[in-house]
Amino acid sequence: MSESQKRELESKLWGIANILRGKMNASQFQDYILGFIFYKYLSDKLVNEVNELLKPDGLTYADIDENTEEGKQDLEHLKEITVERLGFFLKPSELFGTLARRGNVTEDETKPLTDAAAILAEDTDEEYAQTFILEDLEKVLKNIERSTLGTDSQDDFDNLFYDIDLNSTKIGKSVDDRNKVIVKILTALNTIDFDLGSTDSDVLGDAYEYLIGQFAAGAGQKAGEFYTPQQVSTVLARIVTTGKKKLKSVYDPTCGSGSLLLRVAKQVDEVGHFYGQEMNRTTYNLARMNMILHDVSYLQFDIKNEDTLEHPQHLGQRFEAIVANPPFSAKWSANPLLMNDDRYSQFGKLAPKGTADFAFVQHMYYQLADNGVLATVLPHGVLFRGAAEEHIRKHFIEELNAIDAVIGLPANLFFGTSIATCILVLKKCREDNEHILFIDASKGFDKQKTQNYLLPEHIDAIVDTFQNRSSVDKYAYRATLDEVRENNYNLNIPRYVNTFEEEESIDLDAVADELVQINAELAATEASILAFCKELNIKAPF
Description:
Layout: H1 3-17, H2 26-54, H3 69-85, H4 96-103, H5 116-121, H6 125-128, H7 134-146, H8 154-157, H9 175-190, H10 203-218, H11 230-240, E1 246-252, H12 259-265, E2 270-278, H13 281-293, E3 301-305, E4 319-324, H14 357-366, E5 368-379, H15 387-399, E6 403-408, E7 421-427, E8 435-440, E9 446-448, E10 451-453, H16 456-468, E11 476-480, H17 481-486, H18 508-536
Parallel strand pairs: 1-2, 1-4, 2-3, 4-5, 6-8
Antiparallel strand pairs: 5-7, 6-7, 8-11, 9-10
Helix pairs in contact: 1-10, 2-9, 2-10, 2-13, 4-9, 11-12, 11-16
């Protein structure tokens, strides 16, 4: 699929999403749109799989009559196979296309419904919403989850569609109004071919990521709960995959929509397993959908819904790559009992209640494999704040020698906050034991409307400098550990990277000559004006 075709798909999907714009805010209507796209994906995926299974018999899934005994037996057999392979099952009557067509019985049944743009452009509520399907749709979404009960995929599909409330008055005041809106969305989506059989790049996955980014842009402060801008994700992903083609595991303790985990996968040939934890239930559902829609097998990912700091779900496991964008300066309990927790006990201090940033870093470092790399986005305060945070920072540097690099990013990269941030890179076994690399990338960005962006050249500059580990005038500096000690373990980047620009020197003799010339010209002008005033017999202005 060409770039123009990708953009066209993104445009169509965003157009469909806008059916709900004005009815609710971005953080609300994303649940419906992304959920329905996911339902269509599952449906198309299952049809492709079943049709391949039936090909030797000269049949397709559409040929099976689920109302006959023979058909029921065939479906039980197919369910057993598809649940093992895909993790879920849908009967022919539960397929996305079947339900969309059922809702779109029209007075003019000969009218073709093949163009999403035409459907969205017309006022088609009355024409295309003649059949009530909300109850059927609700049952189908529950049946997808039920099809996994007692199987290995149960946890990955449990309550997956929990946030799709088909009875919400935000969709429409009456049941009939809601039905019309939902049918219009399903009808438009049904006209789009996701082309899942293509061996090209992950086109639908990329389009899904585009939609998540669009929703984040419109969600304001809530965007930070689930989305890391792709350009920042790319920097983190390239850092943790430096020198590697395969990863046994990648972990994100605050995984949001899962986009950061998936970005890491784009940098290597293979990722053995994806691990994540997310506290927000809605975002947790989005992460699981995102994984499955990117064709990551349910056997390949393990994402949990819990508070990472208080109730970690993957303790005891070690990960080769860890990436994260934790909520900036979040509050947490800092319960003294946590001093008995192996993640924190060796530091002798807990992160403050009002700024949990270092609590996340301690947690991640504890779970890092000996050959692993940890890269996380943090507010600049972690680099220089005192008290408990200074104590923890000193332990990371002096006792563990774990901090490998500090990278300053431009301000206003993240949705919902304009603060400047940094990337902290940690390793348990560092190749360069005697230095910490400091990079000041704060001035390398492109301003687009109200948001700043990292262009490919800005990303390359950061990653190349990190990988080469060389000092670059006014951009990067390899500080010795002794220098860091002399600065009392303060890691504020301007202490190490001198970005001072000398002002251009001024030639005072040239300035004096210029002033003499200006005075001479001024005197000539005044004389000319005086002559005119005398000629006109008026008072001179000087």
